[in-house]
Design goal:
Radius of gyration of chain A: 18 Å
Number of helices of chain A: 9
Strand order of the largest sheet of chain A: 4-3-1-2-9
Order of helices and strands of chain A: EHEHEHEHEHEHEHEHHE
Oligomer: homohexamer
Largest sheet of chain A: 5 strands, mixed
Structural class of chain A: alpha/beta
Chain lengths: ~270, ~270, ~270, ~270, ~270, ~270
């Protein structure tokens, strides 16, 4: 996979100060990563509060400062790519600005790229109607709004998805089937990284592509890391992609303390 | 102005941990506020770093957590309206989600509303080309992109605008004149709250409306505060405007410490 | 409210040759205007026909010539701001071209500005499906179409709204509730100036902002008048905002007879 | 051309109270109309003022009431199609609402339809920059904005086009050539009905289609009239195309006096 | 109709290698063409396969090479205009590039032009949901998407429309009525050239314009041919409309064999 | 890279009947493919003519029938992914419809996906202005138009790029530098698969990402093939992605002869 001898270094960062999901993502990554990737799974520190979700813009906002610091730290540690592990792709452009030579990947963006190679219209299965506005804005900004068939909500909170797997699987399947039959979706994206572990069953029953966003992001991160290494395709630093100058960072006293991630699960 | 006996309570918050600009805004507000407004001028605490600008998305990101806390604190203190004092209108929708019954106002949004009552096309005079992408995205999301004639950059940083008033005035005038003559702008918006103190001169010379964003925001904030008091026009809390539930806030341990603003200048 | 000693001079003009509604608007204005505003409430002369509504484009067209003359006359009389009192905002750009130093305000535009400070999506409650196309075109041109949740029609004509208040209130409430529950509106705008007197009840029951367009327009007119006086923010006369030259007006024999408004109710 | 024995009845209406251009249009129509068309060339009555152009929205507004009455009168007189003879296509949707079974045609709309059968991008040659905003809005509303290469202004007023033919021809050619070479137009539309008599010379020199708007409108009107007669393709009266009910017209006292056109030139 | 003595020469080309529909179109054309048109009705040769429809993009693709050759051949034979007789308007821009001085007309484009002179919103009645995506893309590219009320499918295949006329008429009527009543269409377009022979009945019952696409295309082709002859309004060959140079055609060995159409029905 | 034992099977298909470029692509692929990919490099048969480019829509059209047959044949041969090797991404949706379980990849689409992970705005360096319209339409349909900074043409034909490498490199560099400096591109895409072999030099000098479209497509194809194998993410066959039914193919006599590719270079 790579023309280099050292392995690709990837971080999967849950942008919340709550690490109970880490092992779930780690299990998936252990199964699915390429052999020459090393993936660190971690969360923000608990300074941001113990939210188990980012369902509200407020929660997004509360983790933002730590996220910026985390991104910069990961880039200093030489990660090739980093996944901001939430389907809102929170602060993706911000993260990309301060990421140095590291490529930053969002699950929403990654999932859509895969869905649109396999179909012309996709739907997103979300937990709460509340999420739709922010996600829709993001999808519009990416340019994919004309390919969006619908959002479908299962009326569940993030923390509920992993509680009763049969219940969740059933709820997601039902919403996905409605998206296909009533909204004319040709593929389905599970619109929360915590909707992990369900895509296969639904895909088999529905017979359309069903995209898991964490897995999609992992694969796009590995691809981006590989391309960066092999062909020098690393982040632009021109115009809107320009990073803060070192002199400013010095003068403003930014990033003085080393950022500490939460516990890391390292998957070699 | 109001049917209530107590005065309208407004906060002008510079979303940076740097309070040297506060007195400049305070002077303008003292001159321009309505008699029945009380305005508190303040900044974030210095925890966010000593940035004197938000020119980079990174700096926006670094202040975000404190901003969210500040918004909530202001709402608890009973402010009727709050101005996020930066032309990026940083995190406006986030701030509005957590603002309780307080209306949150952005200088960019406020300026455009005024410009488009007086003309069909406006230009924005910015300091650096770098700012354009983020501002343009914001203006698109508001819906005003078709009314935007152009951005024109004067190649100055935020901290330079107040250093040599003649130089700045000249640079802004020149860019504004080009916007009118070459880009067919019919009005001009000064695209940084630190471009304060220049609109009148330029307006007189150019003979088109020239909008000062801090002043625009002050006036829209007073208006919003007044309407809230008189007619109950306070923030919606439905759908995408829903606020985090108290139970979550409790459970996640959010907002436990009282947020402390920087020094306040209180203008009665 | 103003730094000038003389009062702000505002006209509320019903753009129809039918003055029976004037007293209804006058009552609202008497209750709601700022102390330093003087508001003249009036209609066009009866030359335009005795229409009690502008539901058809034809009726809009029939009042247009008189409206242009009225706008110019009001500007000559020194009004600071004028409200074209119909939710179609008929001929707003035309009126603004010939308004001299007077700011022209539309109820639709005003209402949306208020709604979007309090919510991310609004619906408009109209009388007849027929109205939707013209209003939708207007909202698209303003740039607000992406924030529009829906139109909801109550199947009533303009002249019916003020006949049986309980019936109307009930009909408007029902449509507004459907807009919120089924179309995911976060705020509601009453889409006809004759839907006057109902916003409060509905707002209390629905618990989302409900905007009355006449009141919204009054407040925006007072604001615009005040800003014009204090900061010189008066209409641009560049490019598409250029007014007809005096020489043309002379040569073409335009505006030779003084325009006579209908009866005026003057509210000091 | 028609399956009926009586001739198609078309009106070319200059929407101004100034009939000096009528003979110019009449000459063109005499040369170009189909044998089975009868065309009446006329103007509005002088009540609207003696404007020789509609360059300002104000002038558009001043003729609107008479225009509405004229449209209705023409429809009562049994015209099959009517051309509103100005490139602004002023009040086209209004005219279509009250036109009964008569089809209303606009020169701008007609010209674009022809240009886009022959090319993928067109430019419009206008007299004054002032015209652009209104025309651009119209073209956006039609849906053709993505096919518009540019507007190019020759800095002439409407009344000047027919004064010195060589001068005008030269100015139009120069602007058209720039549109093709610099703006990548593939066809050119002369953006004023008074730019009559020049398309052929320019077309020969430029070797791209150059569309004359009066001629385009004549041909589309004849086509529309013919289709109406032969296939019953007459105006819809559903939804936004619904016409005012007769009972309203009666009740409001509209159209009581017979509308009198200016002098007519009848071309059989 | 024309200032030339020889008749307008038009081709109606069914872009499939299946000529059983030819006589149906020929019958309509015989009834409806102008006296001075000669129309050749034909299909592609059977090399493309014996498809009786183009419902799939694959079928479109399979006929494309022959279509290009056919277009060029028709242009060499001196046709003034050619109709690509399928509502997908397949490869319209491609056909226009290689058409020399011949104007190429599409039934979809033609129908919309007629519908939008008579109404503000149209619906399209299609056979299968499958067709919608491709047609919608085409309509977006034309610029008409904002005027589209809906697609309505009757769940029939192309080859079924002409089998049981009562059944088809009924199905089309029902869908059209739903488009008008539920989707607020003001006019209806029959979205397949094989929906021929039904517009009149439906139009009479529905009382809105119902457009037959083959007939619409015939009329637009005659109009385009006539304008080309009389005014030199022939295809642009600039920029994106540039045709392949003769030297390339020679060098690449293109179009070496004369293209043979299927049988032709010639209607004088 | 894969959890399967057999290698990923990829086809790089030049959609022209001219195989002189094959070895150039083969050389790049040999250097850059992942070890577990097998790539077949080939062209269409010479039936389509000996075009060395697809610069004109006509040439696109001429290869379309063969392309459809080739796609189906490749899918029958068990390829996991296929690249249509031209930056126009010709007939991408068509190819995807008939591709069975094979994923079809376009160089334009692939390049943009990579560029937008590394920057917010990209420019495309094309050979001729002529290409722009078709590519721009494609980019609009993908949804990426708002991220497009500009097209820049070097005024060269496809066949010239590989003739004098220094000349080409220089021309591409100059255009790319203008795109960055004057059009504010943050990354650059080489807009022709024959602009192969230049990205590295330009990237080093310009210090922004420069994307080679063939290489981008190769990598996206390998990724897509891998995801298909591992997670079942294969093409949707619902709604607009539905493939022609076998019964139709049988009945219409399609694909009866086995499609023969040109010579293949097989890279293991």
């Amino acid at each position: 996979m790579a023309q280099n001898d050292r392995k690709l270094k990837i971080m999967y960062l849950s942008p919340i100060g709550f690490d109970s999901y880490d092992s779930i993502f780690a299990d998936m990554i252990r199964d699915c990563k390429y052999p020459n990737s090393v993936v660190h799974v971690t969360s923000l520190s608990s300074k941001v509060g113990h939210m188990d979700n980012l369902e509200y813009r407020t929660y997004n906002g509360l983790i933002c400062t730590e996220l910026v610091k985390a991104i910069r730290q990961a880039s200093l540690e030489g990660f090739d790519a980093l996944i901001v592990g939430c389907f809102y792709d929170p602060f993706l452009l911000t993260a990309r600005e301060i990421s140095g030579e590291m490529v930053v990947i969002g699950p929403c963006h990654s999932s859509i790229e895969i869905a649109l190679k396999l179909s012309n219209k996709f739907s997103v299965i979300i937990g709460q109607k509340k999420w739709e506005h922010e996600m829709h804005s993001t999808i519009k900004e990416y340019g994919y709004a004309d390919h969006l068939a619908s959002f479908r909500s299962v009326n569940m909170n993030v923390c509920e998805f992993q509680k009763d797997h049969d219940f969740t699987s059933n709820a997601l399947y039902k919403a996905a089937a409605q998206a296909v039959e009533d909204d004319y979706a040709e593929s389905v994206i599970l619109g929360c990284t915590c909707e992990l572990g369900f895509y296969q069953q639904i895909q088999e029953k529905l017979e359309v592509p069903v995209i898991d966003p964490s897995l999609a992001a992992l694969k796009q991160a590995e691809q981006a890391a590989s391309l960066k290494r092999a062909y020098g395709w690393k982040p632009s630093r021109k115009w809107s992609s320009e990073a803060p100058p070192a002199s400013d960072i010095e003068q403003f006293g930014l990033f003085k303390e080393k950022f500490e991630f939460g516990n890391r699960i390292v998957i070699e």
